[in-house]
Each structure stands twice: as C-alpha cells, then as structure tokens.
Design brief:
The chain has about 250 residues and is α+β, with helices and mostly antiparallel strands. The protein contains 8 helices and 10 strands. Strands 1-2-3-5-4 form a 5-stranded antiparallel beta sheet, with helices on both faces. α4 packs parallel to α7. The chain binds adenosine-5'-triphosphate (ATP) and magnesium ion.
C-alpha cells in the first residue's frame, strides 16, 4: 500500500484533469493510499482543486453529496463540477484559503506545530458546533461502521461491539487527520477538506483520530495532543480515545 503524501516525483496527469484545467497550470498536491490524486489548478491568484479516484477505488460521489449538505453550515470546499469516465471519478472544487496543517511551515518547528494542533482543535469545535445533528442524513456511528466493515469481509474483534456510551452526538468529519485541516496565514483554522465519511457520531470518534494523527505528522505528539484538546475545549477521555482509535485501526 502506498503512503498518503505530497507527491515528490513526476505524477501522470489524468486526461480529465488536463481538460478541466484548460489553460491553467496543474500542480499535483496529494496522493492517497489508494492511488487517488489531487491537483491544484491555478491561474493568477484564483485556484481550483480536482480530486481524482481511479476506477476500482471508492468513487467521489459520497464526498460530493456530503460537501453539498455541509456547505450551508461549515467551511468546506464548494463543489463546482463532478463526473466520471473509464479511468476514474473526479470532483472539481473551489479553493479554500489556507494551507494544509501538514504543510512544511507547520511541521518545521515546535512553535509552528503547536499552532497547527490548536487550529485542528478549534476547527473540529467549529464543525461540531455548526453542523445540525437532527438534519444530517449520514451516520458514522460505531455500529454503522462495524456493520459496514463486516459486510465488506473484515474480521473485527467482538470487543469493538461494546462502544462506550456516547459523550456528545455531533456531525463528525469522519477523517479528522491533520492533513484535512486547512490553516490561514495567521495560524487560525480556515476550513476542512476530505469529507467523504462525514456523519453523525460521538465527538470522540473525530477527536481520538485527530489527536493520534499528531503523532504521525509532527514531532512531540503528546504535548500537541493537549494543545488540540485545549483549543477544542474538552478534557481527555482515555476510554473513548482508546476505543475510537481501535475502531479506526480495525476499519
Ligand atoms: N478545495 C480545496 N481548497 C484547498 N485545498 C484543498 C482543496 N481540496 C483539496 N485540497 C488540498 O488537497 C489535499 C488532498 O485533498 P483530500 O484530503 O480531499 O484528498 P484525499 O486523497 O482524500 O486525502 P487522504 O489521503 O487523507 O485520503 C488536502 O489535504 C488539501 O491540502
Ligand atoms: Mg485528505
């Protein structure tokens, strides 16, 4: 399996991306573990992003639908167009301001990493506070995730069936790893991307993974975890952190 990262070598540009770019410049910005690619299309100061998923990997449709729903409430990309061809599925979004929380300037030193951890915490607080649970058509509950994983043939430990009682039901991001938070020039939270799994769940389903991803993306993970929780405004909950990390790892 590939590692999700900013591509370093040359990246083959799918035909549809060339087509959508028109005369704009094309910069590869991300390759995910499934071989999906994201490109920035730029012309002067204005920017657009194309996310392309090869045939045989999950289509972008789930994310297009969720962005359409969440866009009325939260800072997420506006979908300009989407579609598919024989090579894969794609969506074109308007650029949000800001850089990914794993941009070089946030991983380069401890002070910058702290700023990033706080922006991730503040961003999750904003998302969880703004998205209306009652109106959300999507679930990301532990039960639904476990059922989906077992239906797909995964052998999940029975211990996962005993989810801790819900602390607070919110609309979760669904993939709150650090690269999916965008940060403005002044260090404040600017927006979220990658919402294909958004749905109603306990807030710790997001928090546990967001905190965990600090270890994967920065030095000094433990200290950064408390920055994230402080900016979110909640005290550590070991039981739920442990459970939602185990569920993440298993699914
Ligand atoms: N509309 C946008 N505005 C600004 N940046 C964006 C936008 N869309 C995508 N990006 C950038 O592209 C990166 C990749 O996008 P995204 O996270 O959706 O791809 P992915 O392949 O699903 O990622 P993952 O590896 O987490 O599954 C983001 O981390 C972000 O930096
Ligand atoms: Mg992502």
């Amino acid at each position: 399996m590939e590692i999700a990262a900013v591509p370093t070598g040359p990246v083959p540009v799918p035909g549809i991306v060339e087509h959508l770019a028109g005369g704009d410049s094309i910069t590869p910005v991300w390759r995910n573990t499934l071989g999906g690619l994201t490109f920035r299309l730029s012309s002067g100061a204005s920017g657009r992003f194309v996310k392309w998923m090869p045939t045989g990997t999950p289509r972008v449709d789930a994310e297009v639908a969720r962005l359409g729903w969440a866009g009325s409430f939260a800072r997420v990309p506006r979908v300009v167009d989407s579609g598919d061809d024989s090579t894969g599925s794609w969506m074109l979004t308007a650029a949000l301001p800001g850089d990914s929380a794993v941009d070089a300037r946030f991983v380069s030193n401890d002070a910058a990493s702290r700023v990033a951890a706080r922006a991730i915490g503040a961003g999750l607080r904003e998302l969880h506070d703004r998205l209306p649970v009652q109106e959300c058509p999507y679930s990301w509950s532990a039960t639904s995730r476990i059922a989906r994983a077992r239906a797909a043939g995964l052998d999940l430990p029975v211990a996962l069936d005993a989810a801790p009682p819900v602390d607070r039901l919110v609309v979760c991001h669904g993939d709150a790893c650090a690269p999916n938070t965008l940060i403005a020039d002044d260090g404040s939270f600017a927006g979220h991307v990658d919402l294909g799994s958004l749905g109603v769940a306990d807030r710790w389903a997001d928090l546990a993974v967001a905190m965990w991803s600090l270890e994967w993306n920065y030095d000094g993970g433990e200290r950064l975890e408390s920055e994230l929780l402080d900016a979110y405004g909640v005290a550590r909950d070991e039981t739920r952190i442990r459970y939602y990390r185990a569920l993440w790892a298993a699914t």
